[in-house]
Amino acid sequence: MTTSLQGLLAGWITGQRWFAGKGRTIDDLSIESEIEVAAGDPALLHLIVCVRQGERRTRYQIPVGLREHLPDRLDHVRIGTCRRDGREVGVYDALHDSALTGHLLEGMAGDRRFDGLGFHRTHGAEIDTSLRSLVLTAEQSNTSLVYGDKYIFKLFRQLNPGVNPELEIITALAEAGSAHVARPYGWIETELQGEPTTLAIMQEYLQNANEGWSMALTSVRDLYACPEGMPAEDAGGDFAGEAQRLGLATAQVHRELARAFPTGTIEPPEIKRMTERFRRRLEKAVAEVPSLGEHAAVAAEAFDRLADLGHEIPVQRVHGDYHLGQVMRTMTDWVVLDFEGEPGQPLAERRALDSPLRDVAGMLRSFDYAARHLLAGHPNADGLESRAREWSERNRAAFLAGYSEGGGRIRGDDAVLLRALELSKAVYEVVYESRNRPSWLPIPIAAFR
């Protein structure tokens, strides 16, 4: 019995890391768009499918490969077998086949168009189409390919109509000469519900760069291995200098964003409405995680102070999901990645103006996570608690010093807003860890002490 392509995808998609509807039954999967990018054997199809789960409808893009005989090296990404044009063909995830992913480079290099699928090369960029691709496996919500040692190609699996904030921001900052973004080379787009919609972005691959999260963890491990009583600044992997430079780079990116995009202000009535949203989130979190209750007064007091602000707050375009995993240290400076914001949020919210201190708060929380997450399950967790606090406080202070040095605004009542934003983020983390990683729950709880 031959299974239809829709049937194959419905059985396969639930097992993919980027599928957002895990745990819920698929009521229907339909193919909304099917575009042939390359004919022959192998062939490359670009699919946009709509998955219905109850009232929720979610679009995904799936590049599919078709081969009459699927080689062993691609068996791990096999979707199944179906009948096409009178013959049986193997169906598989095309992003794992370098014989097909070369067509994506060629499409960008040539500004090609395939029946509603538009490939675009960034102005002035030269693209080497001879490079072979390799799929990165670390991502959850997207899929990325690395071409040689030159490009990283990120394909957005879940689709929402509209231009992705990351494409807007990296293009604008690169044109302005920013030293803190990886150079863009091209993108792919289509039209959904009458709006140009970003499908993929290709940027410079920072081959010899180090991720901020990994660097921070190395520093924490070095400190934990030091003799008791040795100050953090004397530990071999002290991170404070890098934290200060990261703060400086963050302030520079915020200044560049303010020059490249419109800015505005939030008036006191909107500040009060924002504070009410924080309070409601806190109440729901306490109901779900009762252990937060004994610390809730700390957050409530911070939110009350924010509500009492009697002046406007400046807002602008921001990163929106800023943490140590979103920054890379090159030989010369820090580079910021992934300006798409929270992937699960609507594009309008991800593109909305916000306080740059939201990014600052996210990075401060990331320092706490770096300091404490190694304590989960550690036999000497209690003994290392003071070291974790020392590392976090030292690097938070260094980051804030660098941010101020770079022109970032943290003065007067800005500290009130920053504290409220940080605790609001910690409230979200408490719920997340309770649901997904209960052993990590002490990390966000510590923010309320």
TrEMBL record:
Alphabetical keyword list: ATP-binding, Carbohydrate metabolism, Glycogen biosynthesis, Glycogen metabolism, Kinase, Nucleotide-binding, Transferase
Residue intervals of the Maltokinase N-terminal cap domain: 12-97
Ranges for domain Aminoglycoside phosphotransferase: 140-368
Reactions it catalyzes: D-maltose + ATP = alpha-maltose 1-phosphate + ADP + H(+)
EC number(s) from the headed UniProt entry: 2.7.1.175
This protein's pathway: Glycan biosynthesis; glycogen biosynthesis
Pfam families, per database record: APH, Mak_N_cap
Family stated for the protein in its record: Belongs to the aminoglycoside phosphotransferase family.
Domain of life from the UniProt record: Bacteria
InterPro entries hit by this protein: Aminoglycoside_PTrfase, Kinase-like_dom_sf, Mak_N_cap
Subunit: Monomer.
First-tier enzyme category under EC: transferase
Protein name per the record: Maltokinase
Gene3D superfamilies, per database record: 3.90.1200.10
